[in-house]
Design a protein that fits this description.
With 255 residues, this protein is of the alpha+beta class. 45% of the residues lie in helices and 26% in strands. It has one domain (50-252). It has nine helices and eight strands. It has an eight-stranded antiparallel sheet, with helices on both faces. Strand 3 (93-106) and strand 4 form a beta hairpin. It is globular and about 70 Å long. It starts with a helix and ends with a helix.
């Protein structure tokens, strides 16, 4: 009889306790995973001669807010944040690799997305506004219906078949995507690219790269930046030229 009296109260409490324990376990696991990733990426930065910062002390999110990747996430979902920033400088070009985290909301639930992003910044670099991504059957249908179009290269059908390239000034975009650039992208595609003036982005949507993958991705992106800057020349960056971006003294003392 006593059990029948207290059962209506005990059962909900058991479920509530179980749900709380599950949430606490997930939170602990996430924090532990994030901690291990910070350690791994910090070691990677040291190995490559890069500066590592746990937070976005460079104000990268503010600089990049007009790009499609960050503008889209800010408009449709919760605003994101940048963490685990690896930064260096080659010549006058600043290069960064970082984690971009945002949340997708649907059906009263929220999902956390973390993806790896490469960013290059050079004030003497004037890129035409362009976007490049893998071409799908959907894009081809739109093209045939005359609803959209992309920049193709008759002399390089494989590149044109694999990628969708758009830009405001198509002739300038063509000049930047020289034969060497197209060959490199066909062999080692970084997935999505965005360029605008002196900013350049590369990323794989919703893909958080492990440290080994991130290192390969970083080196490929650095090579691609060099090709775009040289407009087709194939010299690689000299790793000896890689040096950390200097952190302002006030930021160093903020930890």
């Amino acid at each position: 009889m006593l059990f029948l009296v207290i059962a209506p109260f005990v059962i909900p409490l058991v479920f509530l306790f179980a749900a709380g324990a599950f949430a606490a376990g997930r939170l602990y696991h996430r924090r532990e995973t994030d901690r291990k990733r910070r350690i791994q990426l910090s070691a990677m930065a040291q190995r490559l001669g890069l500066q590592f910062r746990e937070k976005d002390d460079f104000g990268l999110l503010q600089q990049l807010k007009s790009f499609d990747l960050f503008h889209r996430m800010r408009r449709w979902w919760h605003s994101g944040k940048i963490t685990n920033v690896l930064s260096g400088k080659i010549g006058d070009t600043e290069v960064h690799l970082f984690d971009y985290t945002y949340y997708v909301s649907s059906n009263n639930s929220r999902r956390r997305i973390v993806q790896t992003v490469f960013f290059a910044n050079d004030k003497d670099w004037f890129l035409p506004n362009f976007k490049l991504k893998p071409e799908t059957w959907y894009h081809k249908v739109l093209d045939r219906l005359g609803l959209s179009s992309d920049i193709n290269f008759e002399e390089h059908p494989e590149f044109s078949e694999r990628f969708r390239l758009n830009g405001e000034l198509s002739e300038l975009v063509r000049d930047k995507f020289s034969g060497a650039v197209r060959e490199f992208l066909t062999e080692r595609p970084p997935s999505h690219l965005e360029g605008n003036n002196y900013y350049f982005l590369a990323y794989k949507p919703r893909k958080k790269l492990n440290p080994d993958e991130a290192e390969v991705f970083f080196e490929n992106c650095r090579h691609l930046v060099e090709l775009l800057k040289k407009e087709g020349k194939t010299e690689l960056f000299n790793l000896a030229e890689l040096r950390p971006v200097e952190i302002p003294e006030k930021l160093k003392n903020s930890d």
